[in-house]
Design brief:
Number of strands: 11
Shape: globular
Distance between the termini: 40 Å
Length: 119
Amino acid sequence: QVQLVESGGGLVQPGGSLGLSCAASGFTFSSFAMNWYRQAPGKERELVAGITTDGIRNYRDSVKGRFTISRDNAKNTVYLQMNSLKPEDTAVYFCNAERIQFLDDRAYWGQGTQVTVSS
């Protein structure tokens, strides 16, 4: 059974930091690219950061220099370290596992964790 379980969300003041974790099970973690998405109220879900199986990282422009994605294949876990948080970072953050393979694309989602940036 595939599971992605996020943790680490919460309430933080502007300028503060939070670290999110996503523990994966039920699939070959090292074979999947891992991504963090977020969805704010009334907005579409957007890709925040991604890390490939080779460890290549990509970020949306609004979080570059503030967020860091990393993965630990030994622990089947992906992380998102968020620094210098802004109110506009407030959203539900979702972990995503993705594999693109001929005739066998896969995508898995976690249940999400709330991040609220407010004074």
